[in-house]
Amino acid sequence: MANPQQSRRLISLGIVAISLISILTVRMWFLQSVNAESDEEIVLSVRTRTIRLYPERGRIFDIKGRVVADNKRVLTATIDREVIRDPEDRLMMFQRLSGPLQISVEGLFKRYEDKRYGPLEALPLQDDISEETAQFLMERAEDYPGIYVREDWKRNYPYGAIGSHVIGYMGAILERNVEYYKSIGYNQNERVGGYGVEQSYETVLRGTPGYVRYEVNAQGKLLRLEERVEPVVGNDIVLSIDMEMQQFAEQTLETQLVMRKRVEAGIVKLEDGTPDPANPEPVLYKAPAGSVVMMHQDTGQVLAMASYPRFDLRWFTSGISSQKFAQIFPQSDDPDMSILVNRAISGRYNLGSTFKPFVGYAALDTGQLVGGADYKYVDLGTYKLESIPNDRCRQGVKCVFRNAICRATGSPCRYGPVNVESALAVSSDAFFYKIGEQILTERGYQAILEQEVRKFGFGSPTNIDLPNEYAGTIPSKALKKRLADIGAISQESGSAYYVGDQILFAIGQGLLSATPIQVATAYSVFGNGGKVMQPHVVHAIVAPGTPDIRPGIANLDFLGIPDASQVIDKFDDEQPTSTIEIGEDRLDPIVRGLTRVIRGPGVNYQGYRKTTGELLFRNYPYAELPIAGKTGTAQGLGNLPWNDSSAFGAFSLSPRPEYRYAAFAYLEKAGYGSQAAAPVVKCLYMGLAGKYRFDPITVADPLNINVGTAAPPSYMRNPSCLVGGQSDSRD
């Protein structure tokens, strides 16, 4: 018989045994009942392999149906990562695959280590393999376990460099954007729109991925298909761009820039008109870059948008090495060298005298001019600030500002009595200096001029449907403080807004900056009577499956049918973003003045003073397509003539919808407004009116990857429209 101590031990052991049995029983129940479903999922995930099927991307057409971006079906060899998780297995597999895939073992390891490819996704080993290679791999599945050949799509740009800044290209997801794309269902290794319309309409063009799910064995061999969900093709996009006009705009811009490189900028002169001994020799214009935009002034639809330098989109699908890419697109701090910049929306430019129409409007709208359009100021070539005491002027404060130098006299141009209309026609700086000063000093130093020009969209993005648009800047105390805070200007300069700042603002200089698309939008307001339109390079989004009339040309007849089922969205009948109540008393003097820029007459004061454009437009077909416009010269670094940039803005006076386009051109370091930019715009309007025979649009020659330039040259066949008399004034 057990003693009491032994009994207690037996009882304790029994309790422990019962507890252990109870715990095991509960755990078995949990595994068999509660956790059975999740365990089944784990088992199934080990036994199945899901492969994403990428959709065919939507096509892009120009307004006449030309296919400017489409797709080529390609085959991609992928491998299940589980098969190559072990380092020795990985090396052996890559050695076996190197031959069939025609890629080095080092190249395969580089793919494996590439962080763009997620650890849970099949690893793409080689893109665009041949049908023969694909068949070879699939027939030898025992030798290449885990290999799967996936159908993908490669983007194709038939026209190469034409419209490249608008159409855009595709690329890898940038690291800073990975989380965003993951949040909307993308894989990290997908290619997405990286520029232009390809980027801004990425989610429209992409479509919806599908997938296939296979049962696999432990070695990764595919056993049977379990499920297949087909991808959905992306929507198509119709641009407002006409590739015929686009090519012509690019040819005209590039031809003019090349021609300006051969022109001497002239001798630098001192204030007294004598040659500057520090710059005794003339220098050729550099003319490195530029842009031109033509947009419908009633709808905001962009017909052409050219930016130079340009590039061939096919570099981004060519598979060139990073070293070759760096050769074609070199990194540089010199803005003249920037190729992958759409200057039409990202160029940050002084506007020179092309800004004067908006200052003239401000003076009329605010009642600053006594008598309105009839107010006259006697322009004797210079303007002395009225708000600065004479003693301060004698102490060195700049108080006198002059007009541009007339080459005929070698002194500041004199125009005599001028009103808003004639001041615009001959581009009198003195008239606008006076407006600039008085609208500030006589109104309590309030930001009246800033408020007035903001109505036209200056200082704010147009929200065009392209990425990387620059908003521009309007001179103000707040802007100067921001610039001083970042060290762009001195703290002393940034401490206040001076009359001198306002004077430069009034003639489109100083801290004013805008993009060509902003200026074209603003000029449209004068052409349409007060509507500020949002520019668009896309005309419509349409359902996939648009049929082709013939290879490379889609049938877009349905766009003319109201409420056509294929049309998802259209942008040619948008409402204005804002409206300016611009009455005839303010609009008419502006339009008359800008019409005289084109047709004359100038003014009679100590002889006839021509307008800045009448010689150039002497043979322009005005009766066919009447326009009004303004030249401008933005003075560059050091006020040296070879740093002058050329600007010209215009709008249509025609009632015919097909002719109602505004345009703006800006040619960097290319000379006076009438000499470089105005001829480009003149040619575009002549082309629009059918007075210039365009070169036919043809598919680009195959890309030569051995060249060292981003795009081949594109010149006008007949540059005669660029030729004409030119003003001898810097305005």
Summarize the model shown.
With 731 residues, the chain is an alpha+beta fold.
Shape: elongated
Query: What is the percentage of strand-forming residues?
Result: 15-25%
User: What structural class is derived from the secondary structure elements?
Assistant: alpha+beta
What is the third-level CATH name, the topology of the domain at 48-239? Penicillin-binding protein 2a (Domain 2)
Taking the alpha carbons of the first and last residues, their distance comes to 124 Å
Most strands sheet: 7 strands, mixed
Number of strands: 29
In CATH's first tier, which class of the domain at 48-239 applies? Answer: Alpha Beta
Indicate the percent of residues in helices.
25-40%
**CATH superfamily caption of the domain at 48-239:** Penicillin-binding protein 2a (Domain 2)
Mean pLDDT: 91
Are there runs of 5+ residues with pLDDT below 50, and where? 39-45
Level-2 CATH architecture of the domain at 48-239: Alpha-Beta Complex
Determine the number of helices (DSSP H or I, runs of at least 4 residues). 22
Radius of gyration: 34 Å
Question: Can you describe this structure?
Answer:
This protein has 731 residues and is an alpha+beta fold. It has a domain at 48-239: Penicillin-binding protein 2a (Domain 2), CATH 3.90.1310.10. It has 22 helices and 29 strands. Helix 13 (356-365) packs across helix 17 and helix 16 (429-441) crosses helix 19.
